[in-house]
Each structure stands twice: as C-alpha cells, then as structure tokens.
C-alpha cells in the first residue's frame, strides 16, 4: 500500500480528485496518509478532516528561517512514512534537501504542457494568462517528477485541453483542472502505486 503525503496551499481540488479516485477504485494500492499545508486557512485541511485524513499546517511564519521550515517539513514527511509526496497546488519551492530525500518520489501537477509556460514565475493564474497572451490553441496539464529545478523533472503524463475563443484566465484554469489535472494526477498515482513506472536516463517509461 503506497502511502501518500499530499502538499497543498489552497482549496485542494486536486486533493479531492485523489481522494475521490481512491474511493472509486480508480487509484488502487494507495492511501492518503497526511495532508500538509503551508496555509492555516487552506480549505484542503478541511477536506482532509472531512475524509478522516490527518491534516497538518507547517507555515514558514512559524519558524525562524527557511532552513528551519524545511527541516520541519521534512520531519513531518518522514514521520508520516510517506512513500510518495504529491504536490497538489503547493506554492512553496521544494528545497534540494527534500528532493534528495525522496528521489523520484515527489510528483507535481503543473497546469500547462511542459515545457510551455513553466518554470520560475509560472504558477496559478499566471500560467493561463501566459497561454492566452501567447495565443496558443491548445494547453493542458503535466504530471512530472520533481527534481532540483523548477518544472524540469521527468514527465509522467500530459493531457491537452482546447483553448476557446473568449476564454479568460479563470475560465481556462477551470477547464484545465476539470479536463486534465483531475484526470492525470490520479492516473499517475495509480501507475506509481502499481509499480508501472520506471525512470531511466531522465525519461519515464510506463509498463502496460
């Protein structure tokens, strides 16, 4: 049974997609062990509580410096005995110390087709604003392993979403979540939980 630690900063819609997929059997051999947020007001913590899952707030403001915050976050991950760390809208950069502690065991969902509209500065609505400003016809979402770069780790799954005339960043964000993020994040977790993924030479290989 793969133990998940889900890190979230806000509402937790991707967390809900994971919980729902576990309940429905779309994700097998996995369970959410803990939900961690840097934001004490995150609705994701309420979602966790409502589902009987441990929720923890670890905010940088609680610690003297960033290093102490990182140590506390790593300590909570280790205490949970998590096998896989899932970044589901976590707006805090993961430090090398945590990446190195969980090599190819941290996954992130990014709301674009990497390598487009990713990297430093591209998060939340900024991703969709960038896509609309560039005039792309297709966008989407990407699940990837996390390395020490920003959105540079091996890609696990991607799903395309049509950009429509009249889209605003908010409308596009919602479509990408519904049609891509909530679909491929559970799929990726299920693949990992059932040992169907191998990382070789910086690329992900999926077994049928």
From TrEMBL:
Binding site for (6R)-10-formyltetrahydrofolate: 66, 108
GO biological process, one term: 'de novo' IMP biosynthetic process
MF terms (GO), sorted A to Z: phosphoribosylglycinamide formyltransferase activity
Domain Formyl transferase N-terminal: 3-187
Location of the active site: 110 (proton donor)
Residues annotated for N(1)-(5-phospho-beta-D-ribosyl)glycinamide binding in this entry: 12-14
GO CC term, one of those recorded: cytoplasm
Domain of life: Bacteria
First-level EC class: transferase
Pathway in which the depicted protein is active: Purine metabolism; IMP biosynthesis via de novo pathway; N(2)-formyl-N(1)-(5-phospho-D-ribosyl)glycinamide from N(1)-(5-phospho-D-ribosyl)glycinamide (10-formyl THF route): step 1/1
EC number: 2.1.2.2
Family statement drawn from the similarity comment of this UniProt entry: Belongs to the GART family.
Function: Catalyzes the transfer of a formyl group from 10-formyltetrahydrofolate to 5-phospho-ribosyl-glycinamide (GAR), producing 5-phospho-ribosyl-N-formylglycinamide (FGAR) and tetrahydrofolate.
Protein name: Phosphoribosylglycinamide formyltransferase
Organism whose genome encodes this protein: Candidatus Blautia faecigallinarum
Organism lineage: Bacteria, Bacillati, Bacillota, Clostridia, Lachnospirales
Gene expressing this chain: purN
């Amino acid at each position: 049974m793969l133990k998940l630690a889900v890190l979230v900063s806000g509402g937790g819609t991707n967390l809900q997609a994971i919980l729902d997929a576990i309940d429905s059997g779309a994700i097998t051999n996995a369970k959410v062990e803990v939900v961690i947020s840097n934001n004490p007001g995150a609705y994701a913590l309420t979602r966790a509580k409502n589902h009987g899952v441990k929720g923890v707030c670890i905010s940088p403001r609680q610690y003297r410096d960033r290093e102490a915050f990182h140590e506390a976050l790593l300590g909570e991950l280790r205490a949970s005995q998590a096998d896989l760390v899932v970044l589901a809208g976590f707006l805090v950069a993961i430090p090398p110390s945590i990446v190195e502690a969980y090599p190819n065991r941290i996954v992130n969902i990014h709301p674009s087709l990497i390598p487009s509209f990713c990297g430093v500065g591209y998060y939340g609505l900024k991703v969709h604003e960038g896509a609309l400003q560039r005039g792309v016809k297709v966008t989407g979402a990407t699940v990837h392993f996390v390395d020490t770069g920003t959105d540079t780790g091996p890609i696990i799954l991607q799903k395309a979403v049509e950009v429509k005339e009249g889209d605003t960043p908010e409308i596009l964000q919602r479509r990408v979540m519904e049609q891509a993020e909530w679909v491929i994040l559970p799929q990726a977790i299920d693949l990992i939980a059932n040992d169907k993924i191998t990382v070789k030479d910086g690329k992900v290989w999926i077994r049928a």
